[in-house]
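Interim report, section 4.2 (structural modelling).
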Amino acid sequence: MSLSASQNRAGLALIAPASILAIIFLIAPLSSILVLAFTDYQLGDRSLRFIGFENFQALIDDPVFWKSLSNTLIYSAVVVPGSMLLGLVSALLIDAGTSLRSFYRTAFFMPVMASLLAMAIVWEFMLHPSFGIVNTTAKALGFASHNWLKDGDIALYVLAVIGIWQSFGFNMVLFMAGLSAIPRDLYDAAELDGTPHAWERFRLITWPLLAPVAVFVAITSAIRSFQVFDTVHALTQGGPNKATEVLLYTIYAEGFEFFRSSHAAAITIVFILLVVSVSLLRFVSLKKNGEGA
Amino acid sequence: MRTILTAAALSLMASAAMADTTTITVQYAYPELFDTTQKEMLEAFSKKHPDIKVEFRTPYKDYEDAAQRVLREGITGNVPDVTFQGLNRVRVLADKEIAVPLDDFIANETDFDAAGYHDGMRQAGAVDGKVYGLPYAISLPIVYYNMDLVKKAGLDENSLPKTWNDIIALAKKIEAQGEADGIETEWAITGNWLWQALVFANGGTMLNEDETKVAFDGEAGKQAIGTLARLVIEAQSPNMTPNEMLAAFSAGKIGMMVTTTARVNAVTKQIGGKFELKTGNYPDLKEGVSRLPAGGNVAIITAKDKDKQKAAWEFLKFATGPEGGAIMVKTTGYMAPNTKAADLLKDFYAENPNQAVALSQLPYLTGWYAFPGDNGLKITDVIKDRLQSVMDGSRAEEAEAVLADMAADTQALLPRR
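Predicted structure of the assembly:
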């Protein structure tokens, strides 16, 4: 298995472009973040001082950071199952129906493609406490109206609903791709064997064969929901009273509004660890599935 | 060899020609608001100073972007020669030695005060007693009235509120009509601008003289937080985001709104013909006691080269002077801090009385206070969060306890000396 020297050189030359790009755009920025997290640097400073773990110590004592971390996890815990379930149900319904399939597909996929920032402004009008369509409808139907974005108890969940609305179309497309890969004759065989109920067919055939896709969808949804920023920035700015503060928004505010760059770098490290650990899950599950198949 | 010599000779000639005209680069924020303004101003400036060539850099998106970029450029050394920044960012730029102090330039001017660059205007761009910028486009807090709702409540333009008591009384009357909320303040704007207005108007300050201790928890601050609490408890001020407030006011769902003058143009347009809009002075202003913080932006010299600094100073004087101010007011809706600018704008203000209201508040003008130290901007966020708990009603009944918490939070973030 030993390679000749020229083969080695050719190999190195071939990976050079990719590695150089990775170093410039990935490794270098990441390592500078890592270094910054251990300094007292503020944007605009001409010098910096290493202060060890002080920034991380400050994070532990910072209630805003903990609030931000737990909000991010709560948001994910709502958005991931919500967008998966809605994505799966709509994929199954579209797959089962025969008419207007491409219309539904496009309609449900629309929120994924639309600019979330522009859509956030539409949501803001719909959720307006005194004349938004949500409250006027609720009043007409006899339900209590709410100040959706300014009520600390519900604001985060309102954002999560917008998050589900925005992302389920993407999951739907992935599930539809998964469904189309399931051989039709399995269903025919099931019918012959006497499982006429749709639910039984789903439980015995669709779901087991869709499982690898589902794991993939769950993990990408989780990573994407950790990255929630646009709606928070446009609608609540982390408020009221940090009720909707999420990690990316905290990083943005610390780094670019308060200029506490080293503080922001420390939170970024935490954020990266979170995303990497979920990505590792995906790696492990893919490996397992790969072996199983 | 010959070509090199010719090239050297040519470049010498070029630099000799350059000595006659100085080129300065200028960068401003909010292109959608200031593109026309800056273009018109440049035309007028070039006529007066043909020896100074002004080049604009691509404008900053907003004040955050402006401060970030100039801070980064401060490290790499390619700052513009003049930069327009949000008024509460002057301190950061002074601390990081990016802004050039203007005191020597001002000392060399004769009759600077008489030309309209009054003391309040210089204070607005001052840090630790040194002037680092001259305010360009400024805004002050005023009250917006929906006159249809005011009239239904039994008042007219001659009996508009002058005090917070009047405002709360009127808010209750508007509320009683059942059509709209009485009053909403844009208390959250930039985190603490309106809070500063409330405290300054009562004669208070944010910190003590040597900036080591919180001072807004004194009598002026107690009164200020008390006013906010009364708005929530007595006047039932709704809990809205700034955007929601603007939409609701323009839709005729709020009777009064307290916010910056900079919104007059946009609000007038949004209202269209739905109802009559009138603006009125900020309440309870007491001569000699009250001051109001200027919002808006400030022109700062960042050039390091002496000649460029001189040219930049000419540009600064023009932009913040009567002529530049007049152009800016006509094209934006902000106010010009220079007292002589108003003389050139008599016709404009006669036609736009809603914009003229804030002019009478110019004598109260003071700086938009920036907290000292590395956590200066973080402090504004802490204040905003504490105010939130009064404004959403959750702690309105114990407003003074909130004030004490706010003071403790702020104190913890101040630099320890």
